[in-house]
Structures are given as structure tokens and as C-alpha cells.
Design goal:
255 residues; 17% strand
């Protein structure tokens, strides 16, 4: 019924409880999850999880925060993406929150990922934090609209959401939308059309209310859907159905 479009099941907090995590997914009607790569050194673990479970999929990429890691080039990403279980390129993007000097290496890495996505025809999973102007600029310059993708864990303005959707991107909401102080984000969740929306956990981080402050897990994504349904005055089944359809369309699963 529900799909978690972004989680990190290979992280220690979750992989050590893998059987329990998968069982709780089933209990909470979360029938699919996308496991996201954040560096090439651990990518084999992400892929192994996806290959071991029919309802798990994976991406390949290097997170913009990560320094002093194996740096990808386009050819390497294209090669690693050549597996039916790899459905996306990323997590990629820009993050100036932790890197306030706005380093050029982040932008170079982002360009590499966009070019790999164009070559593989696989969508991008984009992270942007305190860097929306540059993120959108590079997306336009590099033709990110060709493969398309998703703005994951969205926390930006309605204007940024509109600009990303104009490039053919989906907007994904995490547990942050359930937080009491996320008033502007709640308005964005009301604004984004259901046919451009995904839901996620970004687990093990950002657990939604009523689990805020605890270790997040894919089974909790239903609480994101429930809150969005409440915000929009619709039933949760509609949110689940539409976001699941969008996930399968974007990542070309079961089509």
C-alpha cells in the first residue's frame, strides 16, 4: 500500500535489525522501499540488500556532504548502474549548510551525477540544503529534465518546488512535514499536486511524529502519508495510491 522512496537500510542502525525492520514494513503495509547509496565504498552493501529482497531497490551515487571518499566519474556511475536493481542515480546534489564555503567540488560532483543520469536514462535523487539557487541552476545547465527525478526530503519553498516540477521532478516529503514547527512545509505539501508527490522516511533519520527523536525506519512512512492526507482533507488511501503510482512511474518499476 505504501512505498518508502528513500531510506538507508545499509546504515548500522537498521542493517543490524534487518529482519525486524522488514517485518515491520510488512506489518505497516509498506510493500516497497528504495535503498539509497551515499558513497561508492558502501554501494556493494546497498546493492546486495536490493538483490536479496524482491521488494527492495537501490540507487548508486555519492552524497554531497561526503569528503575524502572515492570520487565517481560518469563512466564509473554508468557502469555501476548497469543492474536491473539500480533504478536511480544519487543521492546527489548540493549542501551548503555543512559546507558554507559552497565548494566547487560539490558542483563538479553534481554535474557528474546529472550526466550519468542522462546517459543511463535513470532518474536522479537530489538532495539540496541551503543551496536551492545553485541546485536549480545546475539542473537547468546540465539538462536534468531529461532523466528527471525527485527532490528528496523536501524542505524548500513553494517557489523552489514549482521550479523543480517545471523541470519534470517529483517532490518527496519526509517525516519533517509532521513536525509542529514545519508550517511553511505543510503549505508546500498542500500545494504540490498528488501526481507529482512521493513520500519517504530518509531513515534512520527524521522519524515522523509520533516517533520523533527515535530511530526512523521504512515502516513509519505511513505516518507521513497520514499527515499529508490530514493536511489536504483526503483519505490516506488516496495518498498511498497516488504516491505509489508515482514511484513506479518515475523509477519504471512494474511497467
Amino acid at each position: 500500500m505504501f512505498i518508502d522512496s528513500h531510506c538507508h537500510l545499509d546504515f548500522p542502525e537498521l542493517v543490524e535489525r534487518k529482519d525486524e525492520i522488514l517485518a515491520k514494513m510488512a506489518e505497516n503495509q509498506v510493500d516497497t522501499a528504495l535503498c539509497i547509496s551515499v558513497k561508492l565504498e558502501t554501494f556493494p552493501n546497498v546493492l546486495a540488500l536490493a538483490k536479496a529482497h524482491a521488494h527492495l531497490y537501490a540507487s548508486v551515487g555519492v552524497h554531497p556532504d561526503n569528503e575524502d571518499v572515492d570520487e565517481p566519474d560518469v563512466a564509473r556511475l554508468v557502469e555501476l548502474a548497469n543492474d536491473p536493481k539500480i533504478v536511480a542515480i544519487g543521492e546527489t546534489g548540493l549542501d551548503y549548510y555543512w559546507h558554507k564555503d559552497a565548494p566547487e567540488w560539490q558542483r563538479d560532483r553534481f554535474r557528474v551525477h546529472i550526466r550519468a543520469a542522462r546517459e543511463t536514462c535513470k532518474p536522479l535523487v537530489i538532495h539540496t540544503r541551503s543551496a536551492s539557487d545553485d541546485t536549480l541552476r545546475l539542473m537547468r545547465e546540465e539538462g536534468a529534465d531529461v532523466p528527471g527525478g525527485v527532490m528528496h526530503c523536501f524542505t524548500e519553498s513553494q517557489e523552489v518546488a514549482r521550479a523543480a516540477m517545471d523541470l519534470g521532478f517529483y517532490i518527496s516529503f519526509s517525516g519533517i512535514v509532521t513536525f509542529k514547527n514545519a508550517k511553511e512545509l505543510k503549505e508546500v505539501a498542500r500545494y504540490v499536486p498528488l501526481d507529482r508527490m512521493l513520500i519517504e522516511t530518509d531513515s534512520p533519520y527524521l522519524a515522523p511524529v509520533p516517533f520523533r527523536g527515535k530511530t526512523n525506519e521504512p515502516g513509519f512512512v505511513k505516518h507521513v502519508a497520514e499527515h499529508i492526507a490530514e493536511l489536504r482533507g483526503i483519505d490516506v488511501e488516496t495518498v498511498a495510491e497516488r504516491t505509489s503510482e508515482n514511484f513506479k512511474t518515475l523509477f519504471r518499476i512494474g511497467l
